[in-house]
Specification:
This protein is mainly alpha-helical and 307 residues long. Helices cover 51% and strands 5% of the residues.
């Protein structure tokens, strides 16, 4: 997510190292009747719980069920609340990328449309849709901005969507986008107020999916920590982004940090709920996610009431 600059397209995109895709861990292999092991794009389960037992699914055919609590099937509805599924099935990620591309094209065609989707703190209280529309918008005429963001979204979506499943993945993404915009607004001040009385970013516009993408980074760390996987690749990636923020001050770092913290919090809620509800059939944590959204909204209301 990059703040507006004098020269369109001059923003430095979120950094994605060339070998990032190789940092995605290999997945557990699913035994088949013929002994062949099909490819799978999910994460490696902890060694002490990476065992499988035969199970019969709703169709009556032999299936697989892990005794790992994060990926065991809930009883009753025949489908997991979240868990690994067939490789390549990432409809939500594909839809998000498609929406971003369409919005970016409309931004290039209409300056009026571009002005309506950007997040500007001075008007966001009366036009709250900007908190989400700005996460689907990018700098007009900047292929690097949207290109790097969509590449990163595609890579993260390939890993996380099959685990969280579509609805929870979308919820974490949108909540992260809201969190990124929220921190950007909380740290913006009208002229004559704020630290030093000089104001900050109150009339600046911010666009980009990187706040939401940083939320996926936070979700990755929560997942890796929960499953005792290495978090080093993501820490390296975050460190490189920190360097970019220092070298290129035009980047809206507060939106990145806000998205990251909110995405990590939302994912922690999801996995904590899964741990608590595994014995009760794996209920999904919608009301807890609603509480995260409520905290963000409350912070914004207090901000605008006190300026």
């Amino acid at each position: 997510m990059a703040a507006n600059q004098p020269e369109p397209g001059s923003e430095w995109p979120d950094f994605v190292p060339p070998d990032f895709e190789q940092s995605i861990p290999q997945a557990p292999k699913e035994p088949t009747a013929g002994g062949a092991v099909p490819p799978f794009s999910g994460p490696v389960l902890p060694p002490q719980s990476n065992t499988y037992r035969p199970d019969t699914g709703p169709s009556g055919r032999p299936g697989r069920q892990s005794d790992d609590r994060w990926f065991s099937r809930p009883a009753g509805n025949g489908g997991a609340a979240f868990g690994p599924r067939a490789a390549g099935r990432t409809p939500v990620t594909n839809a998000l990328i498609g929406i971003c591309v369409v919005v970016w094209m409309l931004q290039n065609l209409s300056y009026t449309f571009n002005d309506l989707v950007m997040l500007i703190p001075s008007v966001a209280n009366t036009e709250p849709w900007r908190f989400l529309t700005s996460a689907f918008a990018h700098a007009p005429r900047s292929l690097t901005h949207i290109g790097f963001n969509m590449l990163t979204l595609w890579l993260m979506g390939r890993y996380l969507e099959p685990i969280l499943r579509g609805r929870l993945f979308l919820a974490v993404y949108l909540i992260s986008a809201l969190g990124g915009g929220t921190l950007f607004v909380l740290l913006a001040f009208p002229p004559g107020s704020g630290p030093g009385g000089t104001g900050s970013n109150w009339n600046s516009a911010v666009v980009g999916a990187s706040g939401a993408i940083f939320g996926l980074f936070g979700a990755y760390l929560v997942l890796a920590w929960t499953m005792k996987r290495s978090v080093t690749p993501m820490l390296v990636l975050l460190g490189l982004n920190l360097v970019m923020i220092v070298l290129f001050p035009g980047i809206a770092w507060s939106a990145h940090v806000g998205g990251f913290l909110t995405g990590a919090a939302a994912s922690a809620v999801v996995f904590w709920n899964r741990r608590r509800s595994a014995a009760a059939g794996g209920s999904q944590p919608w009301w807890r996610l609603a509480m995260v959204v409520g905290i963000l909204v409350a912070a914004l209301v207090i901000k605008y009431l006190t300026i």
